[in-house]
């Protein structure tokens, strides 16, 4: 029998230290490694793929998608889905085409017209957020409705006559180059850096992760979640609006369908890059890597002679595989599939 004195001096074994979660770092490193491997495979299969001019083409082609992915990443981080990009981009594209120098009217607002178009897009994004937090409409339905509103606005402004842009500033975004890259590519890079800074250093970015990870816990801690959700959708709308302006610069005209397909492409890029659809993981840099993956894949398939008609199917298979790989750890832990 142990005496009280002996009990006081008894050595208690130290608690076992938890092992570091290596799986998280491996999952984060997966997309960059896949990008390097994919680039190496296509470079080996096609000499034209590894030329400097083709690398520049890849970066230029990724510019608009990267800006859209910046916006959609914030929404995905909160655990919501955003399908409003096509409509918002269409409304922004037509608006900017009618406000800068064009063949339809005498407007020549230049940079002010670009700011107004982005502001309209931000307002439409705000509408999505308000529908979510006030009317309790599921995010994918709210944003799908806002996309329809944006397309309606764009169709009314289009009025059956295509506005062709003659503004030198907007045209120069797609035509003029710096260090071998189009100005649009540098604009996209600036957007990625700004979005990353917002995610990393602002309360909005931190709360976006927290909302996606454990919204109930955040609300119980006294944080008003609703304003941050609205702010996230507003910010996403602004990015979509800028992307619509960039498409107008590329085409030299405002089109209602300027944003067609960008919602699915951006979600694909974000998920492939490691941003979870359920929120709480990933972010801007993850999605940017995903954009490069998708763009390199598309360019590489063309370089090796694969029909463009197969590209959509390949992207679909990739996003399904990426989602499946991302949810395997959660499925093992929770033993439930939602």
From TrEMBL:
Protein's UniProt keywords contain 4Fe-4S: no
List localization entries: Cell membrane
Q: Offer an example of a GO molecular function term for this protein.
A: transmembrane transporter activity
Name the membrane topology term: Multi-pass membrane protein
The GO cellular component terms are: plasma membrane
User: Which chain regions cross the lipid bilayer?
Assistant: 29-46, 58-77, 83-102, 109-134, 140-159, 180-198, 230-249, 261-277, 284-302, 308-328
Q: Where is this region: Disordered?
A: 1-25
Against InterPro entries, the record matches this protein to:
ABC_transp_permease
What is the source species? Promicromonospora citrea
* Chief localization: membrane
Q: Which UniProt keywords apply?
A: Cell membrane, Membrane, Transmembrane, Transmembrane helix
Name it. Answer: Sugar ABC transporter permease
Per the UniProt record, one Pfam family is: BPD_transp_2
């Amino acid at each position: 029998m142990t005496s009280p004195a002996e009990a006081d001096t008894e050595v208690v074994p130290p608690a076992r230290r938890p092992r570091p979660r290596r799986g998280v770092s491996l999952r984060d490193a997966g997309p960059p490694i896949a990008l390097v491997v994919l680039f190496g495979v296509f470079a080996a299969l096609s000499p034209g793929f590894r030329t400097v001019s083709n690398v520049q083409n890849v970066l230029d082609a990724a510019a608009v998608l990267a800006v859209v992915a910046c916006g959609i990443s914030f929404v995905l981080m909160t655990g919501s889905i955003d399908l409003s990009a096509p409509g918002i981009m269409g409304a922004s594209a037509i608006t900017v085409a009618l406000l800068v120098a064009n063949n339809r009217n005498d407007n020549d607002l230049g940079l002010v017209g670009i700011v107004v178009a982005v502001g309209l897009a931000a307002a439409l994004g705000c509408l999505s957020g308000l529908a979510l937090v006030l009317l309790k409409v599921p995010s994918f339905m709210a944003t799908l409705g806002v996309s329809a509103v944006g397309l309606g606005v764009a169709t009314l402004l289009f009025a059956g006559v295509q506005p062709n842009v003659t503004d030198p500033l907007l045209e120069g975004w797609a035509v003029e180059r710096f260090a071998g890259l189009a100005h649009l590519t540098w604009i996209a890079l600036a957007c990625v850096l700004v979005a990353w800074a917002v995610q990393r250093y602002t309360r909005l970015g931190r709360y976006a992760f927290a909302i996606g990870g454990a919204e109930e816990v955040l609300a119980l801690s006294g944080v008003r979640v609703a304003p941050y959700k609205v702010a996230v959708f507003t910010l996403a709308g602004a990015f979509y609006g800028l992307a619509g302006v960039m498409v107008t610069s590329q085409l030299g005209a405002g089109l209602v369908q300027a944003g067609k397909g960008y919602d699915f492409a951006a979600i694909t890029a974000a998920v492939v890059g490691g941003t979870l659809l359920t929120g709480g993981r990933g972010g801007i840099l993850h999605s940017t890597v995903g954009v490069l993956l998708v763009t390199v894949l598309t360019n590489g398939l063309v370089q090796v002679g694969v029909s463009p008609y197969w590209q959509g199917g390949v992207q679909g298979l990739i996003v399904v595989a990426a989602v499946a790989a991302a949810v395997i750890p959660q499925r093992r832990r929770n033993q439930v599939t939602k």
